[in-house]
Amino acid sequence: MIRENEFDRKLLEQVMPEGTPHPEASERYNLVVVGAGTAGLVAAAGAAGLGARVALIERAAMGGDCLNTGCVPSKSLLKSAHAVGDMKRAAKLGIHIEGEIRVDFAAVMNRMRRIRAEIAKNDSVTRFRDELGVDVFLGEGRFVDKQQVEVGDQELSFSRAVIATGARARVPDIPGLHDVGYLTHESAFDLEVLPERLTILGGGPIGCELAQAFGRLGSKVTLLEAEDQFLGREDPDAAQILWESLREDGVDVRLSTRLQNIEPGQNAPHRAQIQTQGSEEELLFDQILVAAGRAPNVEELGLDQAGVRFDEARGVEINDAFQTTNSRIYAIGDVAMDFKFTHAADAAARAVVQNALFSVGGVGQKTLSSLTIPWCTYTDPEIAHVGLTLREAAAQDLEIETYRCDLAHVDRAITDGREEGFVKVHVKKGSDRILGATIVAPHAGELINEISVAMAADMGLGGLAGVIHPYPTLAMAIRETGNAYTRTRLTPSVAKLFGRVLEWRR
């Protein structure tokens, strides 16, 4: 993070204040939390709020990825980028903007830094130490045995502990990559000058979001994805719509493409050799951003001494109750879970507070498998999902039926001029039990919540058809999938029976 501007100085004063002394450790803690990203902060705050004696250890900045290098800065940047997209679409609405759209990249980045600094108070050392009563240790935490963590010159004894050290950008071993000064999501928000030619390696959510953001802000962006579909966990129809949107934004999307090697230029441009289905090509770029997955932070934590099994690629091993192979120690968030989302870490942290502090003999435990976890990629349009995908359902030999409503048939989408997108809901064959759903639409991340609530409450798709929705709204598309299911209940025999009853009542 840059320290030479007022907003980052304000940020660091809150989440990484220099010279903060360690508190004197208590004799024993109910809970010691290692890592102060979302998972760790929620666990520490929740436990302290219930009266537990809590220690929180962080080696870098409080707030972790979400505040400092993830959700907050990326969504701030995307808001500016989406404003450019709105202006470019304005002509379709009869609004004409004279001249070229001018992007002040420095102002865009300063706005992001200002917002990040404003939000930082929620994750600050001051709040956790003075308001919540948590003992905050800024330093390296390391397990020395199964019930103690060392930080600085003190050893913290605990009844229970939580590992919440998160993950970092995974950097592939590509010849020349380390010589060009690559970016990751951890350093992209330090940029002061907009890259003229930006190559992004990896077509996951981070890669797609930043490709669209930088493309709309004025970079010539090339997105490289090794597989034949970016956003590999998503519905292929959803990925296709986003591909078309990125193409309209000038992003050159290369699927089934591998980066072979890089030849650094004296300054710029650099040269990359790429291979697409056996065909080789040279690509020029000024900056490269690596978005090729995440690596769990498991190194130098003393996990072996704590009896905690882990894998450097997959992270800490946990059971369904978030326990590690040391039953006193739990692990949550990106260091242990496949769902690497802020809201998933939050939900897991709340579950672990209950499990660690109040569950006896497994009674009353909350489990990972019971969580209904949606996710969203915040491109334009957004892509949101919850539950099983078609691919996952097939792998489990589940027979499903899918109900779809295209936004082109939704009045609000038509009036807004945003007809690209759809709602798909998968139900168990022969019932209305919702197994999963995908939404592609503006604000799909807001719309998916209705289906998440229905799934969590065991409300079927037929029940959603009976929910009154304001007209006109995009959420009518969800109701229409319910109506489509309801219409399947009117079989020929039922229709014939209804006809006889109505004839009798005339």
Describe this entry's structure for a reader.
There is one protein chain. By secondary structure, the protein is α/β, with parallel strands linked by helices. It has 3 domains: 6-169 and 295-357, 3-Layer(bba) Sandwich (FAD/NAD(P)-binding domain), CATH 3.50.50; 177-292, FAD/NAD(P)-binding domain; 381-488, 2-Layer Sandwich (Enolase-like, domain 1), CATH 3.30.390.30. Helix content is 33%, strand content 23%. The protein is built from 15 helices and 23 strands. The protein has helices at residues 6-15, 38-49, 64-68, 71-89, 105-119, 125-131, 205-217, 236-248, 342-357, 390-395, 411-416, 444-456, 461-465, 476-488, 492-505; strands at 29-34, 54-58, 135-138, 141-145, 148-151, 154-163, 167-169, 197-201, 220-224, 252-254, 257-263, 270-276, 279-285, 287-290, 294-296, 310-311, 315-316, 329-331, 375-377, 382-387, 400-406, 422-428, 434-441. Strands 1, 2, 3, 4, 5, 6 and 18 form a 7-stranded mixed beta sheet that branches. Strand 16 (310-311) and strand 17 form a beta hairpin. Helix 1 runs parallel beside helix 5 and helix 4 crosses helix 7. The chain is globular. The mean pLDDT is 95.
